[in-house]
Structures are given as C-alpha cells and as structure tokens.
Amino acid sequence: MFNFSNYPVWLNLTIFAMAAGIVCFSGARLSIYADTIADRTGWGRAFIGALLLGGAASLPEIATTATASAIGNAPLAANNLLGEIGMQMAILALIDMAMVKGALTFFAPQPVLMLGGVILVILLGLVLAANAVGEFISLFGIGLWSVIVFGAYLISLHTIQRYERQDYWRPVTLPHQPAVEAIEQRRQNYIHLSLKRIFLYFAANSFVVLIAGWILAQIADTLGEQTVLGDSFIGATLLALATSLPEGIATISAVRLGAFDLAISNIFGSNSLTVSLFFIADIFYREGTIFAAMDRPSMFMGALAIVLTCIFLWGLLERDNQTVYGMGVDSAMVISVYLGGLLLLYSKETL
Questions:
Q1: pLDDT by residue (tens digit) across 188-213?
Q2: What pTM does this model have?
Q3: Which of 194-198, 251-255, 256-260, 307-311 has the highest mean pLDDT?
Q4: What is the 3-state secondary structure (H, E, C) of the chain?
Q5: CATH class in words for 4-349
C-alpha cells in the first residue's frame, strides 16, 4: 500500500511517531477492556492476559512474521520473533523501574504466573531443539517441529485456565495492594456496558493496533535498509521494538490500574504466542522449513530469552521486595543481561 523506502528518514520517523501514538491510545484501552472481561467472565487475569490481551497486542507481529517469511527472509523473521521476547522482558523491567514503588514480582504473588513463565521456557527450548536436531518430517514445506511448538502453545492455554481456576496453593503472605480502590472505581465506569459491547470495543481497538503496528513494523524494516546495520540486528532490536510497542503500552496500562498480575501474564502470554508464530512463519516460508533457515544470531536471542525469563521466574519465586535504583533486583538483572546480550550480538554482527 505504501512504499516507505521512497520517503526520507525524517518523514519515516514522523510517521513512526504518529503510529506509535495511536498504538499508545488503543493499547491502553485494551488493558482496561481485558481486565473488565476477566472480572465479568471469571476466566482469570492470567488466562485473559495470555489469550486476549497477549493475542491482540501480537497482531502486528503476525503480519510482520508472515511478510518476512513470504519474501524468503527467514533470518529477519526468526530474529524478530526471538528478539521481541527479550525486548518485552526489558520493557517489563523498565516499567518496574518507572512505575512500581518496589519490586514488580513482589506485588504479583499468583502461582499461575510462574506456570506461564515455565511454559515460555519450554516453548523456547523446543525452538532451540528444533534448530539443533534438524527437521525430520515435513509436509508441503511445513515441518513437524513447528506443529509441535504450536500444539504445545494451544495445550498451555488450557493448562493455564484450568490451573488458575483451581486453588492448588497460595502464598502465606500477600502484599498490600494500594490501587484496589482505583480498580473498583474504574470497574464502576464500565458497569453499564454489556459484556458483548465490551468485547466489541476490545475487537475495534485490536484492529486499530493491528493497522498501526503493521505501519510501525514496515517503517522499522525500511529504516533498517536505510542504515548500515544488518538484518539480524535490525530484526532483534528495531523491528522487535516496533512490534513490542502494543504489548508495552498494554502492560503500562495494566500497572497503572494496579493489575500487576495482568501486566506480567500479558508479557509471558504474549511471548508464548510469539514463539508459536514459528508455525505461521513455516507456512509462509517456501524455501524449506523455517528452523533449518535460522541463523546463529537468532539462536543466541532464543537462549537470551530463556535466561531473561528465568530471572523473572526467580523473582516470582523469591518474592523479595529489595530494590536497586527504584526497581526490583530481578528487573535490574534483566536490563543488565539484555543490554550485555545486545552488545555482544552487535559486536558479532559488525566483525
């Protein structure tokens, strides 16, 4: 529809900023409607965060993955997917530093969040295993490994919903939630709306996020071509940042509402959905199987994503409210490890 490569850099940056503003507005509404849906239906915030909120915020990622795979740029698709996971973990840590008076993981004691993190690690492990072992069965260019990853993701959604509804165990001490009154006040603002209308508003804002996010991804790809950076680094940073913006805005909105569990489940659930998109990439990539075309930088980003997820899992298990520069110790570790990983990736790309 638009050929952004014909535009100068300053104009692309302007359009990028405008699209980002639209995503900020609609992404914030998504968190409000998702929290209301979770309250009305009783499905649980972790399940809603993983399925509806994570899925809606990941719509631009689906379009970007399909496009990159269809044009035969498998490294860009793989690095975009795996790079976005690390990017979102770093965004969650930055939100902890800027908005939470304490450690974010301390104020989210729900055990189901740890289950979401474990599921994400399992899915990432399957991706790394697929690349290491290689494809042994494929049909119409779609490998068995991508089917396994996608199937594992679907099973995980059912597992999270079942786990959240059961009272298997709960922490003995619960943190004080200062935003409870604000949450109840917000819910009163939507009490006159039917559940059908709330779903409709959620779908409308999701469509806006899809269009604006697609524009962000296209401009990010164009800016990558207008610079001297490689596809792997661009896919893991600039393109990942563009497609991570909807999740980031939705997470910020959830934290502002005091729904800390929704914020973490949104990131974990969105990242799990991101891993499952290798199935979509495999469908559109016609030069073989997607895992066979992955490069070493994408494998590095996958390993880095596992490390970052495990650091937050550590924080959820320990539930220590000690802070460093206003954020939890786990968030500080995530930012340090992520920046170190990007520096290492960039140094390898430029050698």
A1: 666 677 888 888 988 898 888 778 87
A2: 0.81
A3: 307-311
A4: CCCHHHCCHHHHHHHHHHHHHHHHHHHHHHHHHHHHHHHHHCCCHHHHHHHHHHHHHCHHHHHHHHHHHHCCCHHHHHHHHHHHHHHHHHHHHHHHHHHCCCCHHHHCCCHHHHHHHHHHHHHHHHHHHHHHHCCCCEECCEEHHHHHHHHHHHHHHHHHHHHHHCCCCCCCCCCCCCCHHHHHHHHHHCCCCCHHHHHHHHHHHHHHHHHHHHHHHHHHHHHHHCCCCCHHHHHHCHHHHHHHHHHHHHHHHHHHCCCHHHHHHHHHHHHHHHHHCHHHHHHHCCCCCCHHHCCHHHHHHHHHHHHHHHHHHHHHHHCCCCEECCEEHHHHHHHHHHHHHHHHHHHHHCC
A5: mainly alpha
